[in-house]
Amino acid sequence: MSGCYSISELARELDITTRTIRFYEEHGMLAPERRGQERIYSPRDRVALKLILRGKRLGFSLAECKELIDLYQPDGSNRRQLESFQRKIEERRAQLQQQLLDIQQMQLELDVAEQRCSQALQELPA
Predict the structure, then answer these.
(1) I want to staple 9 with a disulfide (CB 3.0 to 4.6 A). Which of 5, 26, 28, 62 is the partner?
(2) What does pTM read for this prediction?
(3) Domain HTH merR-type, which positions (predicted)?
(4) CATH of 5-123, one of 3.40.30.10, 3.30.70.20, 1.10.1660.10, 3.40.50.12160
C-alpha cells in the first residue's frame, strides 16, 4: 500500500495527536480504510488533514474546512476548490478588518473611561 499512512505516521508528520485525527474522522472529514482495528489513510486523507489544519490556522470553521475538502479533486482541476478558498480568504480578511476596527474603537472607549475615572478620583477629597 505505497502512499498510505497509519494514524501514528500522520500524527507524527503533522505534529498533531492521534486523537485529533480521530476527531476529524468522526466529523466525516477523513475516510480511512480499515484493516481490522488499524486505520489506513490515503494521500487524499493526508491532503484533507493538511487543509483542515491550514483552515484552522486561518480561523475557518470545521464546516468551511469540510466544504473545501469536499471540493478537492485529486486527479482533476481544483478550480472550484481554489475559487471557493479564495472567497473564504477574502471573507475572513474582511472579518478580521472589522474586528480590528472594533478593537480600536473599544480601546478609545477604554481610554475615555480611564480618563474620567482618574479625573473623578482626583476630585474626591483625600
Answers:
(1) 5
(2) 0.73
(3) 1-71
(4) 1.10.1660.10
